[in-house]
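Annotators were shown the component list below and the corresponding predicted structure, then asked to write short factual statements about the assembly.
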Amino acid sequence: MTMQYARCNWMLSLALDENGDPCRYMATGDTTDGVVATMSSHIESVHSVDPADLQNNIRAVTKTTKTKNLNNRPPTEH
Ligand SMILES: [Zn+2]
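Structure shown to annotators:
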C-alpha cells in the first residue's frame, strides 16, 4: 500500500500562508488523480490561482511513499 503526496510550495514556490510564511500545505491521496484534485481545490481557494494551468505541474511533483504501518518491514529493492 502506498500513498501519493505533493506539497503546495513545490509548484507555487512564492505561495504564502496567512502569516506570510511559505505555504506548507501537503495534499495526499491514494492516487495521483486524488492528489491533483485535492491540491487543485487548495490552490484555488487559498491562493486564488487557477489550477487548470497547474495540472501537469502537480503530477510532476507528486511523490509516492509507503504508508506508515509498513515501516517495520525491511525495505524492498526496486
Ligand atoms: Zn498553499
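Statements collected:
1. The CA atoms of residues 16 and 23 lie 5 Å apart.
2. The chain has a mean pLDDT of 87.
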